[in-house]
């Protein structure tokens, strides 16, 4: 446990910064690079606890991965070169590693066992185990294979047509990755669009993939070919600084080279509907992913409603958006976000409990919360529940608190943003 006491700031947030590479795209670039033939160079790769788990999983299966200051180089030799790991694979705290790797392991013709940290061990895996078992993968584990640790015997998959029962890019991706090993076509139908990085990147790596409206189809007809990846900045990491600039009076902040994929930009739409001034400049596209510079200017905030198709477009940003809503005039309602209860911690409960502890007025509901603004945040002791996004949200709350805010444990921040506090200090000039 690593406690930190944070004092409020007295001046606006100004300047510019660049956030680290996107976590979702970094995971996928390792996976596709390792399954492909040839050398994949990944620049602006996110080096963090979660992405390390995906790197180590492939190293255990024999993939040569070189790491240096600015890039990650994957020497892919195709799926048939991957070896049965001698030791269990450790997924750590990373839901993305777990769900996507289960899709890959279901396709590989050998035995693997896998486990996670105590938090990941409580997160449901049946959402991927069920469709991957229907495809022919063999899984065993507690509660009929719903929880890690899991034993996996892969190989001989058949394609399926699968309608997603949950709004989850991880489930969609696991089934599509399984589809790379399956006979026939694998189709995933998703009612509510979720992040589409797997589809974009499979295309860039030469897979046989089509996406039409709600249906995505993949087959094993074409093997993957290495493709270099320049990872855009992570909008989910940028979100903390966007909200900081939106709530600290007089702030103006520019975030450079942030990923602007429509399936991820819900935070910008919501903050601007709440009144924040947002401008985008220097738009460009790399590897099928749009990016650009985002400038945020603080303006008075009003409450809003966040629901429906918007939810997957900002799912990881809800704790910090809830913080913004505590500073908005009137009520903010968040609905259809039941998936938040299944993250690193129950983020509905954790967000309401911790913000209420320091003076907010939030009523948790089954699938979201109702936030009444405007609240004065007092400071005091807070708990992160080993959740990186809770820890960073509370650090941003400390900027506007009346007194010192103590965070019980900042170590989880290394899961997605090891340099968070250096970056925060730079823009708060402290
Ligand atoms: O596919 C991904 O990279 C992710 C998908 C989302 O999870 P779900 O698929 O569980 O919604 C998100 O919360 C997670 O941080 C990353
Ligand atoms: C939910 C998250 O990640 P994961 O599911 O990969 O643990 C997150 O980063 O907020």
UniProtKB/TrEMBL annotation:
The keyword Cytoplasm applies. It is found in: Cytoplasm. It comes from the Bacteria. Pathway: Metabolic intermediate biosynthesis; chorismate biosynthesis; chorismate from D-erythrose 4-phosphate and phosphoenolpyruvate: step 6/7. It catalyses: 3-phosphoshikimate + phosphoenolpyruvate = 5-O-(1-carboxyvinyl)-3-phosphoshikimate + phosphate. 3-phosphoshikimate binds at residues 23-24, 28, 168, 170, 316, 343. Residues 10-424 form the Enolpyruvate transferase domain. The keyword Manganese does not apply. InterPro entries: Enolpyruvate_Tfrase_dom, Enolpyruvate_Tfrase_sf, EPSP_synthase, EPSP_synthase_CS, RNA3'P_cycl/enolpyr_Trfase_a/b. Keywords: Amino-acid biosynthesis, Aromatic amino acid biosynthesis, Cytoplasm, Transferase. Its EC number is 2.5.1.19. Phosphoenolpyruvate binds at residues 23, 95, 123, 170, 347, 389. It is an enzyme of class 2 (transferase). Residues 1-20 are annotated as: Disordered. The active site is at 316 (proton acceptor). HAMAP family: EPSP_synth. Belongs to the EPSP synthase family. Catalyzes the transfer of the enolpyruvyl moiety of phosphoenolpyruvate (PEP) to the 5-hydroxyl of shikimate-3-phosphate (S3P) to produce enolpyruvyl shikimate-3-phosphate and inorganic phosphate. Monomer. This is 3-phosphoshikimate 1-carboxyvinyltransferase.
């Amino acid at each position: 446990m690593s406690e930190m006491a944070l004092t409020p700031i007295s001046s606006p947030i100004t300047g510019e910064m660049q956030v680290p590479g996107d976590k979702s795209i970094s995971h996928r670039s390792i996976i596709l690079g390792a399954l492909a033939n040839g050398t994949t160079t990944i620049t602006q790769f996110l080096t963090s606890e979660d992405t390390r788990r995906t790197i180590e999983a492939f190293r255990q299966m024999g993939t040569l991965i070189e790491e240096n200051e600015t890039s990650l180089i994957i020497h892919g030799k195709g799926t048939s070169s991957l070896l049965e790991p001698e030791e269990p694979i450790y997924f750590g705290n990373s839901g993305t590693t777990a769900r996507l790797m289960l899709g890959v392991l279901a396709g590989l013709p050998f035995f693997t066992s896998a486990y996670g940290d105590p938090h990941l061990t409580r997160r449901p895996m049946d959402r991927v185990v069920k469709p991957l078992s229907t495809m022919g993968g063999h899984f065993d584990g507690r509660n009929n294979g719903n929880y890690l640790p899991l034993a996996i015997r892969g190989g001989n998959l058949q394609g399926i047509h699968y309608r997603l029962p949950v709004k989850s890019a991880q489930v969609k991706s696991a089934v599509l990755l399984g589809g790379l090993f399956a006979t026939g076509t694998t189709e995933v139908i998703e009612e509510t669009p979720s992040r589409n990085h797997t589809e974009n990147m499979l295309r860039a790596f030469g897979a046989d993939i089509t996406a039409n409206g709600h249906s995505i189809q993949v087959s094993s007809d074409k093997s993957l070919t290495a493709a270099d990846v320049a990872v855009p900045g992570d909008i989910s990491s940028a979100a903390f600084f966007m909200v900081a600039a939106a709530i600290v009076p007089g702030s103006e902040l520019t975030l450079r080279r942030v990923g602007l994929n429509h399936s991820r930009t819900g935070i910008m739409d919501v903050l601007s509907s709440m009144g924040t001034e947002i401008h985008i400049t220097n738009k460009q596209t790399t590897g099928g992913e749009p990016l650009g510079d985002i400038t945020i200017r603080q303006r008075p905030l009003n409450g809003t409603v966040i629901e429906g198709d918007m939810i997957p477009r900002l799912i990881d940003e809800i704790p910090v958006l809830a913080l913004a809503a505590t500073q908005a005039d009137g009520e903010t309602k968040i609905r259809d976000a039941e998936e938040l209860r299944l993250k690193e911690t129950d983020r509905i409960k954790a967000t309401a409990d911790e913000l209420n502890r320091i003076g907010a007025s939030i009523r948790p509901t089954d699938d979201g919360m109702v936030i009444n603004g405007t609240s004065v945040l007092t400071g005091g002791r807070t708990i992160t529940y080993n959740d990186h996004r809770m820890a960073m949200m509370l650090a941003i709350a400390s900027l506007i608190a009346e007194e010192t805010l103590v965070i019980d444990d900042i170590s989880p921040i290394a899961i997605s943003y090891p340099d968070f506090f250096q970056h925060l200090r730079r823009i708060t000039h402290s």
